[in-house]
Design brief:
alpha+beta; five-stranded antiparallel β-sheet; 2 helices; 7 strands; about 30% helix; globular
């Protein structure tokens, strides 16, 4: 096979797959807090919760894209209540918003007291994943279609979070550029 000639038309970007509903990405994952998961206070390590969040989020992203994904960022991680030894942790994840090759996944962590069945929100997080093609490069992914009022709210909130992330990045780059210009 010969190399592309300059007269060949440029390669077209891959066509965007058809949209998928948010519900197609839903994940519910359950873990029990065991002694190796806890610190000397008898509460779960934050890093263990983060690990579970990343797993649930990646599964939701893969369900949406039908592709391998990588974690690009973690935003707005909030711990609300302690999770104790013996508690059950229920993680709920879903794709909130899709850009071209990346998507935001929201993960809600609930603490369930096994003796009472009572649940309360223990943590929430928003992660950005990038879908990869067979060569490991970012690839175009299907849009997401929010259907319920809750999905529509999460979709709109995700757009706002994306705008904040991009504005923060631009502000940091501008400051760094100004610092470099002043010092050099």
């Amino acid at each position: 096979m010969s190399a592309a000639r300059s007269s060949d038309p440029p390669a077209r970007p891959p066509a965007r797959p058809p949209a998928r509903p948010c519900r197609a990405s839903h994940v519910e994952m359950t873990e029990m807090v065991l002694p190796p998961d806890t610190n000397y206070h008898g509460t779960v390590f934050g890093g263990r919760i983060l690990q579970w969040i990343d797993i649930a989020g990646a599964i939701a992203a893969q369900r949406h894209t039908h592709r391998k994904v990588v974690t690009a960022s973690l935003d707005d991680m909030h711990f609300a209540v302690p999770v104790r030894l013996g508690d059950v942790v229920v993680l709920k994840a879903a794709v909130n918003y899709v850009h071209r090759t990346s998507m935001e996944v929201g993960v809600r962590v609930e603490r369930e007291v096994i003796t009472t069945g009572e649940r309360e929100v223990a943590a929430t997080a928003y992660l950005t994943y990038v879908a990869l093609d067979d060569d490991g490069a970012p690839t175009v992914i299907p849009p997401v279609t929010p259907e319920s009022p809750e999905e529509k709210r999460r979709f709109a909130d995700a757009i706002t979070r994306r705008e904040f992330r991009l504005a923060r990045r631009d502000a940091l780059l501008a400051r760094r550029s100004a610092d470099e210009a002043a010092s050099g």
